[in-house]
Amino acid sequence: MGPINTHDPATAAETYTVTLGWPIAIGHRYRPRGGCTCSNPTCPTPGAHPLPGALAVAARALPGSELAAAPGAALIATTAACDALVMPRRIGMATMVSLDRVAPVPCLIDSSRAFLLVLPATGRYALGGRTGSAVELRSGPQQWIALPPSNGTRWDTPPWNEQTNDPIPLLHGGDVRAHLTEALAYEAAAGRRQP
After folding, report:
1. 68 exposed, middle or buried (CB, 10 Å; 0-12, 13-18, 19+)?
2. pTM recorded for the entire structure
3. Residues sharing a CB contact under 8 Å with residue 88, sequence separation 6 or more, in sequence order
4. Of 144, 150, 151, 90, which is closest to residue 117 (Cα–Cα)?
5. Which of 41-50, 57-66, 92-101 comes out lowest in average pLDDT?
6. Which of 21, 38, 144, 149 is 20 to 30 A off residue 61, Cα-Cα?
């Protein structure tokens, strides 16, 4: 069995919907000379965010015709099937180094952020009541993440076993808490050491 090709939108969409059972929707496209199709010249996530109303109609399978009609469009998953802990990339990578010794945790990255995926409705346990944190929680069907091959996104750790292509079990957010807390503490200490 070969590796899953997330550079091909049709293969990626089938993996997300059929293999993982995630509801996904079509998002905006990134045009190399024209920017994001949302027409916002300062779009913070060009070609990697939902179309208006797309989350309300996210499906467990996307018709091939819909993908063909939107070449280069983002693939957007609602956070109904998982919670996403969104954090600066350096904090996410530090958390992942610690977690790699425990269990694989699916992790998406873009140019500046990491998205750690945990069981749905458990992400708040990773935060431990922390407010004003560098970590944003996305949870429920009205929140979203952009999936590869969306512009600028890639898997650091995919949500499937790379030998068998079977889904990997998601951790409870509480199992991530100590590792995330350690990474945040290290980042805060490094900030205090800056001249």
Report:
1. exposed
2. 0.93
3. 112, 113, 114, 134, 187
4. 144
5. 57-66
6. 38
